[in-house]
């Protein structure tokens, strides 16, 4: 795990509070209660923690594939889509290791973050 990922885990509660700042306090209390109830609810309610750890090169590469796929399915620029698929595969050495590491550590990270949030609920 990189230092960035480790430092992000240190105070997951503060990250969640910052992300949800300005929300209705009654609904926010319900959300926090749900987040503490189980790891699955925590994952659903804090997907921003996961996506903040995905390297930008992965998001960019996969976004291009999705966009070109949509164009191709609508009959627009089929050659461009094929070219982008080839480029996506050739650039795998840039995004693949980061994505594999993230996926491999997701369950462990999720469990650690959920336990940290559950054991240290937001004050107020």
How would you characterize this protein structure?
The chain has 124 residues and is mainly α. The chain has eight helices and no strands. The protein has helices spanning 3-10, 12-19, 25-37, 39-45, 47-51, 56-73, 78-90, 92-119. Helix 3 (25-37) packs across helix 4 and helix 6 (56-73) packs antiparallel against helix 7.
Provide keyphrases for this structure.
124 residues; mainly alpha; 8 helices; 81% helix; elongated; disordered N terminus
What's this model, at a glance?
This protein has 8 helices and no strands.
Topology:
Elements: H1 3-10, H2 12-19, H3 25-37, H4 39-45, H5 47-51, H6 56-73, H7 78-90, H8 92-119
Helix pairs in contact: 3-4, 6-7
Global morphology: elongated
What is the residue-mean pLDDT, rounded to a whole number? 79
> How many domains in all?
1
Helix count, DSSP H or I runs of 4 or more residues: 8
Low-confidence sequence ranges: 1-9
DSSP strand count: 0
Quaternary structure type:
single chain
Proportion in helices: over 70%
What is the strand content? under 5%
Q: Tell me about the biggest sheet?
A: none
Rg result: 18 Å
